[in-house]
Amino acid sequence: MATGRTHRPATRSRGIPEATVARLPLYLRALTGLSERSVPTVSSEELAAAAGVNSAKLRKDFSYLGSYGTRGVGYDVEYLVYQISRELGLTQDWPVVIVGIGNLGAALANYGGFASRGFRVAALIDADPGMAGKPVAGIPVQHSDELEKIIEDNGVSIGVIATPAGAAQPVCDRLVAAGVTSILNFAPTVLTVPDGVDVRKVDLSIELQILAFHEQRKAGEEAAAGADGPGPVAAGRGDSAASSSSAASADKGPDGDVPAVMPA
Prior knowledge:
This protein is an alpha/beta fold. Helices cover 45% and strands 14% of the residues. It is built from 10 helices and 9 strands. The protein has helices at residues 18-36, 44-51, 55-64, 77-87, 103-109, 113-116, 147-154, 165-178, 204-227, 237-251; strands spanning 41-42, 75-76, 94-99, 119-126, 135-136, 139-143, 158-161, 182-185, 198-201. The chain has a 7-stranded mixed beta sheet with strand order 5-6-4-3-7-8-9, sandwiched between helices. A two-stranded antiparallel ribbon has the order 1-2. The relative contact order is 0.08. Mean pLDDT is 84; it is low at 5-13 and 234-264.
């Protein structure tokens, strides 16, 4: 099997959109599940549902791979697994270093999904001298003083940063200077990199804040629905009209048309 620096995936040279590239792992995960169940073919509708996209978008994505399926039969599962794996560069071995072996870094080191998807954790690196030599996930932690040598010796082109925010940029600079051209950043900060270096950011706190926004919005909608419930029936026609006028005035927002929604 080839190593990480022999070649890079051809998605850019073939003009595959970034949005399509981002969906390819979703298709691959669904297809891998089908393959493990010995399912030979799958329709675009079934695969789209398993991947959480619509079937028209899936067919458009697969057209970039040159895969159009067979009418009345669908897509060959094993061939699609090969096609997508090849496009993502997963038919070769990608050595990865993880820098920052705290709780998050250790959890990443113990994640079994890397190896099954073509990523080999080549080294664990930490700045704490007390961590040096300690095994994590069966791999001895090495001191950050050896970072450049580790990258050169293992032919690493992908680095994972799991350090505190303040240490992330200096670590990033060292990784790039040593030859790393792709970085997965778990530190809660924005990294600055030169052209030719790709960075993917994973920030769990941001994802939680987005979920909090949706929860607040749902709570506001429920409260508004409760406030709009039926009130007491008016005794007379005139009282009913006055009541309706008062309710309409109360329900209007500052612009007079849309009910105002105040932040919690």
